[in-house]
């Protein structure tokens, strides 16, 4: 759930509590997404000057990222950026979120390579939905990437497209954990049952 998201407006709270679904309020903006083994994340963490002539504001960053992914999905599924979503035709398969500070920006995407239909019932129809959704249900609004390309192909093509913008060097996650001594205090956090219950009570008033 995005940093400014309100659980009562975005989640079927009773179902979330009954099924003990963890809810994370992340530090970036954007909407709410169900995350499981079928979700693929791609994140760009960039210094302000990392991409020449790119203004560090939401729309220019969004435009830049869609241009990069146009290389990944060239000739596949009528890919384009629609409002703030990546879509094939008029069905969403990628949701985006950003965080921008004075000297750095983050742009990350949750790609729906696959999803469990039942899990979508935890999400309410958001009040601030994109116009192109046209009040469609989640299942009519989204699609699976696996119906368009293999997961490994997507990863390879994303690396290839990213290499047109940056000089890449692969590194193992464990190496990242051991190469820094700086303390990190994450601002993303799990919402407690008490917070979710309070949101549910407030909704009933």
Automatic annotation (TrEMBL):
Family matches, as Pfam families: LplA-B_cat (PF21948)
Matches recorded under PROSITE patterns: BPL_LPL_CATALYTIC
UniProt-listed InterPro entries: aa-tRNA-synth_II/BPL/LPL, BPL_LPL_catalytic, Lipoate-ligase_2_inactive
Protein origin, superkingdom: Eukaryota
Every BPL/LPL catalytic domain range: 1-170
PANTHER family named in the record: BIOTIN/LIPOATE A/B PROTEIN LIGASE FAMILY, BPL_LPL CATALYTIC DOMAIN-CONTAINING PROTEIN
The protein, known as: BPL/LPL catalytic domain-containing protein
Annotated source species: Gossypium barbadense
